[in-house]
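Methods — Computational structure assignment.
A single polypeptide chain was analysed. Its primary sequence is given first, followed by the predicted tertiary structure written as structure tokens.
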Amino acid sequence: MKILMLHGINHNMFGKRDPKQYGTVTLAEIDGLLQTLGNELGVEVISFQTNHEGDMCERIHAAYGEGVDAVLINAGAWTHYSYGIRDALAILTVPVVELHMSNIHAREPFRHHSVFAEIVLGQISGFGVESYLIALRAAVSAARAAQGR
């Protein structure tokens, strides 16, 4: 089973960017934690990060052709306005889980709305780095259920 983790804009700056909201964990550390949990769950986790919206859409398109079993996405600020990424995600026929380290509903009003909410399986936010691990468990469970396992 393959799970694709999509990291959005500015996530390459985790560990440096706004430690009050995001802590000091780096993107490499997050990916390492996902790899470890993926191994425990018997799944392969493929991570991708970009600061370019078109590249994110292209990676989602590629995921469709690759036959990934589920997708995790923390799109960062794109969550609140990128209809292009939303439309790319809508092409997928596998479970998609949206996640955020911070509680987007307890932050600035513009962050309260997700343009992905209507098309994703669910949203996990506010648990820091643990949001990634909760999301991976949820995605694997949903993918296995969809495959009848």
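Note: The longest strand covers residues 2-7.
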